[in-house]
């Protein structure tokens, strides 16, 4: 049986004041035990990376960013490079979140470029993917996974695969309170893992964490985590309160 460490990350999106972010970071850091069986990260907005990094310093909680640019540096007004994130203390970066794909129009190829640059520069990447409701209604989800995941993974080295986490986030479940059932999540995760196995071999497929995101709460975490291919959670709304985020981490630790 493969042993994948579970991973729970909080995506704070465009929320929190500076004071709230520092307090939330500190409370999460305090609540996660140093010997936590679950790896934990928080992903605050860019301007709060340094102060939140300070608030979680020395704890078991790692820092992540919500996006990154695909080039290493240059004339890209308003953008942030992988090296800047690393200097801010980030271990992780989220790439390809559905809000960026659908609201900001990020294409698969732009996401793939970001993924490769971020991995080349040394970050761990949380690559988001998932189908819309219209796509699920037409049973197109597996085609969507294929497009979003496999193109992104082409050309990665074994070492880079070791720094990749896939987050399955069905668009219809994000911020809607409509969580995927454990069976729906398992089916999607198993499909993705099966394809990774076909394309890149057993070792890579078995080691790669696939986490679920979309209306995760303390109440539905255990059911999702009981599925063999669900390795953790990417949490939006419920990560904005330390109590609920820590309850999710605890449920994922069981
Ligand atoms: O988009 C998400 C995490 O990246 C999920 O958001 P919610 O947990 O608020 O549904």
From TrEMBL:
Enzyme class per UniProt: isomerase
Compartments, record wording: Cytoplasm
Main location group: cytoplasm
Catalytic activity: D-glyceraldehyde 3-phosphate = dihydroxyacetone phosphate
Pfam families listed in its UniProt record: TIM (PF00121)
Cellular component per GO, a single term: cytosol
Keywords: Cytoplasm, Gluconeogenesis, Glycolysis, Isomerase
GO BP: any one term: gluconeogenesis
Residues that hold substrate according to the record: 11-13, 175, 215, 236-237
Signal sequence range: none
Keyword Transcription regulation: no
Subunit: Homodimer.
Family the entry assigns: Belongs to the triosephosphate isomerase family.
Function: Involved in the gluconeogenesis. Catalyzes stereospecifically the conversion of dihydroxyacetone phosphate (DHAP) to D-glyceraldehyde-3-phosphate (G3P).
Protein name: Triosephosphate isomerase
């Amino acid at each position: 049986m493969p042993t994948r460490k579970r991973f729970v990350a909080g995506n704070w999106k465009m929320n929190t004041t500076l004071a709230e972010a520092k307090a939330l970071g500190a409370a999460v850091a305090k609540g996660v035990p140093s010997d936590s069986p679950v790896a934990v990260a928080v992903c605050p907005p860019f301007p709060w990376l340094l102060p939140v990094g300070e608030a979680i310093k020395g704890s078991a909680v790692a820092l992540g960013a919500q996006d990154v640019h695909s080039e290493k540096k240059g004339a890209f007004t308003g953008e942030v490079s992988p090296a800047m994130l690393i200097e801010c203390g980030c271990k992780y970066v989220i790439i390809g979140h559905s809000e960026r794909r659908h609201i900001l129009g990020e294409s698969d190829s732009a996401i793939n470029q970001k993924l490769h640059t971020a991995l080349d520069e040394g970050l761990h990447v949380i690559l988001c993917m998932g189908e819309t409701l219209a796509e699920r209604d037409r049973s197109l989800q597996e085609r969507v996974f294929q497009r979003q995941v496999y193109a992104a993974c082409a050309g990665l080295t074994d070492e880079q695969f070791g720094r990749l986490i896939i987050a399955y986030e069905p668009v219809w479940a994000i911020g809607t309170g409509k969580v995927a059932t454990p069976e729906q999540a398992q089916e999607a995760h198993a499909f993705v893992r099966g394809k990774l196995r076909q394309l890149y071999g057993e070792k890579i497929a078995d080691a790669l964490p696939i986490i679920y995101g979309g209306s995760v709460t303390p109440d539905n975490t255990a059911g999702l985590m009981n599925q063999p291919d669900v390795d953790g959670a990417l949490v939006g709304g419920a990560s904005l309160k330390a109590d609920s985020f820590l309850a999710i981490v605890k449920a994922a630790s069981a």
